[in-house]
Amino acid sequence: MFGKEDRRVEHTRRALHQALIALVREKDYDQIAVREILDRAHVSRSTFYTHFAGKDELLVSGIEGIVMTSGRGHAPTSFSLPILEHHDQHRQTGRMSRQTRIALHGRLRALIARRIREDARRSMVGIGEAPALPPDLLAQFVASTFIVVLDWWLDTRSPLSPVEMDEVFCSLVAHAVHGARTASP
Question: pTM to 2 decimals?
């Protein structure tokens, strides 16, 4: 019974995330009502609130699903390719308003920064010396740079593939971080 229940929970959460994705392509995020998400996902209000406190929590959960499960423990840029691939799938089927993208990418930037900051702090445990770059600064820099690269890619409708954009992003970050570590104060 437990396995069957887990599948139902996963199915419900997936349906809700897909409904939200479809709706953000049709209208501004701020104008989407929970009722619209429920109708699109064929989920009851009580079921929705069993899983999420509101549409913001649903949104953050979807972003975390991509960010937090991608390449943990590797380079601070390991989240990039899965997010670019996700956007590539959706940029072929429709566009969202600039206002919605700003709202969503603000949340994405915050989640990326949190993940990088946590990973950087974990990797420094027991080292004893100050890192070349403060973890908070590195996290904010990498996350903000990613959003700039992502927005440029989407705005220009660049023909570069997700893999190529990942290489561009990683190169920008590596160059900047390496330069910061070798530059004298």
Answer: 0.77
- The verdict on 14 and 103 lying in the same domain is no
| Residues 6+ positions from 96 with CB-CB distance below 8 Å | 24, 25, 29, 104
Question: Which range of residues forms the domain containing residue 14?
Answer: 1-54
DSSP string, the chain: -HHHHHHHHHHHHHHHHHHHHHHHTTS-GGG--HHHHHHHHT--HHHHHHH-SSHHHHHHHHHHHHHTTSSTTS-TTTTHHHHHHHHHHHHTT----HHHHHHHHHHHHHHHHHHHHHHHHHHHTTT-S--SS-HHHHHHHHHHHHHHHHHHHHHHT----HHHHHHHHHHHHHHHHHHHHHS--
Altogether, the residues listed in the chain come to a count of 185
pLDDT tens digit sequence for 52-76: 999 999 998 988 887 766 554 457 7
Cα–Cα separations (whole angstroms), residue 85 to 57, 92, 109, 136, 150 = 23, 11, 17, 26, 11
pLDDT of residue 18: 92
Residues 104 and 163 in one domain: yes
Q: Are residues 111 and 174 in the same domain?
A: yes
Structure tokens at 134: 């403060």
